[in-house]
Amino acid sequence: TFANRACREVFGLAVGDSVAQYYADPAARDDLVSQTKRGRVITHSEQKMRTREGQTRDFLVTLIPTRIDGEETVLAWMIDISQQKADQEALAQQQKYLKYIFETAPVGIGISVDGVAKFVNPKLSELYHTKAGDQTLQLYVDPGERTRIVERLMRGEPTRDYDLRLYGAGSREIRHASASFLPVTYEGQPGVLVWY
Question: Of 15, 92, 28, 90, which Cα lies nearest the Cα of 59?
Fold first, then answer.
């Protein structure tokens, strides 16, 4: 076994040591070994590994079967992604909490992209009988209002407490609403967040 300085610092690995003890899941390690024995290259396999301090951390493991001095061996390197995983989990929790706030809010909240509703909370659906996938233009009594709002957002002008006339739920009843609009990015696309 050869281990570079970084590997020795993380795992305390020395020449002649078995690497099996550093895998948190022995079965996963056995599966990787089986694949490399069949000549398969393993690229960025996500594995939980134990460090020399006994911590369990997340690594991307790459294994390449090869021969050195006529002997079969495996070239391996590992990338510690523990912080990245922790950041992803924290972001997922924040998104979950934000979604909960949106879905339980007492005001109508929606997100649209290119004039198509992408997210509609229950209150907005109740008030204006709209759902994800609907064209937002159909809500406006005066379609020109939407054009003017988009133009204001593109100029970077505040668009809060904007007086609108909208069609109510399930009818052509006209409702007066005070709406606020904010440019956002939704799934990688420019969109508009609105609340009534």
Answer: 28
* pTM tops 0.70, yes or no: no
Residues 18, 33: Cα–Cα separation, whole Å: 13
3-class SS letters over the chain:
CCCCHHHHHHHCCCCCCCHHHHECCHHHHHHHHHHHHCCCCEEEEEEEEECCCCCEEEEEEEEEEEEECCEEEEEEEEEECHHHHHHHHHHHHHHHHHHHHHHHCCCCEEEEECCEEEEECHHHHHHHCCCCCCEHHHHECCHHHHHHHHHHHHCCCCEEEEEEEEECCCCCCEEEEEEEEEEEEECCEEEEEEEC
- Find the length of the chain: 196
What are the beta bridge partners of residue 66?
A: 73
pLDDT digits (tens, 9 = 90+) for 31-47: 999 999 999 999 999 99
Contact between 168 and 127 under an 8 Å Cβ cutoff? The reply is: yes
